[in-house]
Amino acid sequence: MSTKRTHVLLPENLLREIDALVGPRGRSSFLVETARQEVRRQKLLHFLESKDPAWKDEEHPELGDDAAAWVRRLRMQGENRGVPQPKQQGRTRVARTRRARVQNMP
């Protein structure tokens, strides 16, 4: 990342406080990180005050028709992760129970 030298005026008492925290050799890093945090905070405040929707339907077509079904699929994927699959043919009691639970979800 490229950097650019700039001239910034700080009150002497503030400069002493910064030096007490990070030392005179740590001023630049401290001020850069503080400025980054404040820029993020200001952007977030601007976004929160904006009237633009954060969620656009065209960006999430998987939710357009049936969001509840999409959520059920995600939950099933999470439940099935790491569960050994039955080796026998047909449905096991666990599979039937899991299927019944999904079908009864609101």
Summarize the model shown:
This protein is mostly helical and 106 residues long. The protein has helices at residues 12-22, 27-49, 67-80, 93-103.
Could you explain how this protein is built, in words?
It is a single chain. With 106 residues, the chain is an all-alpha fold. Among the domains are: 38 residues; 30 residues, no CATH class. Helix content is 56%, strand content 0%. The longest helix is centred in the middle third of the chain and has 23 residues. The radius of gyration is 27 Å and the shape is elongated. The relative contact order is 0.05. The mean pLDDT is 82.
Keywords:
106 residues; mainly alpha; 4 helices; elongated
List the helices and strands and how they pair.
Layout: H1 12-22, H2 27-49, H3 67-80, H4 93-103
User: Span between N and C termini?
Assistant: 51 Å
Mean pLDDT: 82
Shape: elongated
Category from helices, strands and their pairing: mainly alpha
Biggest sheet statistics: none
**Which stretches are poorly predicted, pLDDT < 50 over at least 5 residues?**
none
Radius of gyration: 27 Å
Number of strands: 0
Order of helices and strands: HHHH
- What is the tally of helical segments? 4
